[in-house]
Amino acid sequence: MDTNAMKNWDDRGTTAEAIRAGMIDKLVYSVGKDPEHATLQDWSTALGLVVRDHVVDHWFRASHRSHEEKKKRVYYLSMEFLIGRLFNDAIANLQIEPAVQEALSTYGLELRDLLDQESDAALGNGGLGRLAACFLDSMSRLEIPAFGYGIRYEHGLFRQRFHDGWQIEEAEDWLVSGHVWEFERLEARYTIKFGGHISFDGQGNTKWHAEETVFAMAYDTPITGWQGKHVNTLRLWSSRPTEILDLRRFNSGDYLNAAEKMIRAETISRVLYPDDTTPEGKELRLKQEYFFTSASLQDLIRRYLTEHDDIRHLPDFVSIQMNDTHPAIAVAELMRLLTDEHRLSFVDAFDIVQKTLSYTNHTLLPEALERWHVGLFRKVLPRHMQIIEWIDFHHLAEVQSRNLAVSLEDVRIIGHGSEVRMGNLAFIGSKKVNGVSALHTELMKQTVFAEFHRLYPDRIVNETNGITPRRWLYECNPPLRKLLMETIGTDWIANLEKIDAAAAFATDASFKEKFAAAKHANKIRLAGVIEKKLGLRVDPTALFDVQIKRIHEYKRQFLNILETIALYQAIRRSPANDWTPRVKIFGGKAAPGYHVAKQIIKLANDVAKIVNSDPVVGDRLKVAFLPNYNVSLAEVIIPAADLSEQISTAGMEASGTGNMKLALNGALTIGTLDGANVEIGERVGPENIYIFGLTSEDVAEIRVKGYDSRATIEGDPVLSDVLRAIAEGDFSPDDPSRYHDLTDILYNSDYFLVTADFQSYFQRQRDVDHGFRDTSRWTERAILNTANVGWFSSDRTIRGYAADIWNVPSV
Ligand code: CR1
Per its UniProt entry, what is the enzyme's top EC class, as one word (predicted)? Predict the structure, then answer.
């Protein structure tokens, strides 16, 4: 092969003229449409293909380089990648927007319209999945050779619709109009086995006689780093049948059953589990986890062996990060591959495993640390059960030999003889285990992994989460991007710490005016979306108060709604007072089986209906719950926010990342001392954040001592009035008892301490009212938020992983 000829394939050029010509070429010869009959979707695909070509040029160069230099690679294993749309991301990273705009103008097309044709790839639930997407961006930015490995769900997170205020879930169909960014890799295919039994031949050979097999087939999406300097790969696996149609059955007219095996195999990558806190769907979920983990490990070992001969040196050239416990089966699967297939001893294999794998914990919620019944586990993964028994036995022996006062039961993988604890498996099989904010890591050491921490005091490290500034400022906030570029230059895009230069302009009258104007423009854009989706008109000069995240009791949207009602009642009592107009904006999905969360959504919508139509209240208060919150909607809401609600029960939100995005875009936070709010507060300073409520220590103490919520409610006339109104059906006249379950929770088992924090939250909100009225000072404080949160770039986070965990260089 003439590799020199290969190196010069990419002379396409990124001038407007080249893009214009490229588009016509793609439209006609790839999409198969003539310009006269092309739809917006066709044009969008054509432009997408042109942009993709440029990405591919950079991509090949990067892979050749990594291969030739035999660089160490990072593999990020994650059940979720919430990448959203990629079109604008590629254009922004390649810096070709002006040329694209110019090319489009010759056809009378608007870039925005073409971008809107792309579907939002919702291959994740929330923060954990979006973090994985930001990490891919940052690994490319830092030129770390990396692969993201996950599942190519045919249907991502469900689409949320409201029917009479209730959440309705509909299947999502992101692939329906084609996805230009991915490449199908028919040749990258691995066999994945399930079930059956194991035989040993007495000569050290172990054979797994599987009951069921499927193929994992790869789809690759290039992930462009800033300025295209490096491009990594997101490789997603799709499940395919190993046996095709049963022709005998088909010919006998039994069409459905003839396809049964195919359908079963394809089910594995059919849907994303719509739950980010509880393991559901048991067997299928376990199969999904094993499916993508096994395919990824087989694939990375194959790649390793094309560059190196000795499997024993794997840890020198490979680092594997397990994103939460979902891929924790990697510990046992890597053991299996190293022993059964590559013939290493168990002891040698385990040494390699512990030097190669690392694990990120994302939550302390006990229900989210996955556990599997031994019976189910053995049925689906018989060989892995044996391997886990071996690891558990040897680990226990090692712990016992150290004679430490450690609870042995707590550090077992197989708990009470009946469950496989994936958190413990991941911990034992890892080189490093990290938390995602300073507080969360501290709490990990004190709670879920306390015993492990005593055994292995160097293993737990902290890597506070971050967000990519390309997506979460440069792309989503053009007015602010422009202002920053004019004022402090462009360094901040690749080095977000440099955004601190904006602090010097916080009191500069002209900068302040432009900063406020940028915010106002973004608010007008959001107001347009609210009107379009909800038919509700809101005043863009009002305070935009935003809570966007999954609906969960610990995140306490309920607390926000209670405060909304209290404010509503106060306005109605004294409409003539000088109120600070507010728009309460909500977005978020509830897990389909999470009854309380769905009631909270309905309550928010019921409250919205009453408040928004009350002439006494008018523009002083509006409530807008936007349906189907996703990455694309976040890109519109975040730049328009004035106030960011981060009000979880202290100690329960591991980090949060929406908090970082909102602060970066100039929203002030109202929040508890939880997750990364603590670190945000340290950087923006107490006068630029509204902290309230119990601390995590207070919460821990209350959990021990007990808490009487009824006494709190009865001692607080404002809260009593709010709960009375809900319980009497003021917001649900059609069904007055609709919310008795919700109010009962507050009276009888307020585990999330909503009532305990209500008063201080309500007070802090009045401070916000007061603060927002001083427009000039508010703008200064907003600027100081933007300027002081540069540390929360995911580039900084990834540098931390590279140095502390993966041992790879970053630029
Ligand atoms: C946490 O709840 C954190 C993200 C990313 C979530 C959130 O606070 O910002 O992870 N955890 O680290 C999660 O989804 C399954 O656990």
Answer: transferase
pLDDT tens digit sequence for 648-707: 999 999 999 999 999 999 999 999 999 999 999 999 999 999 999 999 999 999 999 999
CA distances 392 to 162, 300, 428, Å, are 48, 26, 9
The domain defined by 71-85+120-464+799-806 carries CATH number 3.40.50.2000? yes
Per-residue pLDDT, averaged over 337-342, amounts to 97
The answer, yes or no, to whether residue 11 has pLDDT greater than 80, is no
Task: Give the torsion through C-alpha atoms of 380, 383, 384, 385, to 10 deg.
Answer: 80
Rounded average pLDDT over 120-133: 96
Domain ranges of the chain: 1-69+94-119, 71-85+120-464+799-806, 469-787
Pick the catalytic residue from 384, 470, 549, 781. 549
Q: Which residue has the tokens 């927002």?
A: 772
SS (H, E, C) 412-432: CCEECCCEEEHHHHHHHCCCC
Whole-model pTM?
Answer: 0.97
Ligand 1 center to residue 380 CA distance, Å? 28
- The CATH number of domain 469-787 is 3.50.50.60: no
- The helix/strand count (H/E) of the chain reads as 35, 24
Ligand 1 surroundings by CB, under 6 angstroms: 126-128, 131, 276-277, 324, 362-363, 368, 436, 465, 653-657, 675
Beta strand residue intervals within 250-387, DSSP E: 318-323, 357-360, 371-373
Q: 465 C-alpha to center of ligand 1: Å?
A: 10
Q: Average model confidence (pLDDT) for the chain? A: 95
Contact 626, 637 (CB under 8 A): yes
pLDDT at 10 over 90: no
679, 438 in Cβ contact below 8 A?
A: yes
**Alpha-carbon gap, residue 70 to 81, rounded angstroms:** 27
pLDDT of residue 728: 97
Kind and range of the H or E element at 123? strand 121-123
Q: In whole angstroms, what is the distance from residue 190 CA to residue 291 CA?
A: 10
Measured by CA distance, the residue closest to atom 5 of ligand 1 is: 128
- Tracing tokens 């926010």 back to the chain, one arrives at 641
Cα 768 to Cα 670: distance, rounded to the nearest angstrom:
8
pLDDT digits (tens, 9 = 90+) for 373-405: 999 999 999 999 999 999 999 999 999 999 888
Q: How far apart are CA 383 and CA 574, in angstroms?
A: 70
- Same CATH fold assignment for domains 71-85+120-464+799-806 and 469-787: yes
Q: Helix, strand, or coil here: 781?
A: helix
Burial of residue 404, with CB atoms counted within 10 A of its CB: 0-12 exposed, 13-18 middle, 19 or more buried: exposed
Q: Are 317 and 327 in contact (CB under 8 A)?
A: no
pLDDT in tens, 532-568: 999 999 999 999 999 999 999 999 999 999 999 999 9
Residue 190 confidence (pLDDT) above 70:
yes
Find the catalytic residue in 661, 738, 781, 799.
Answer: 661
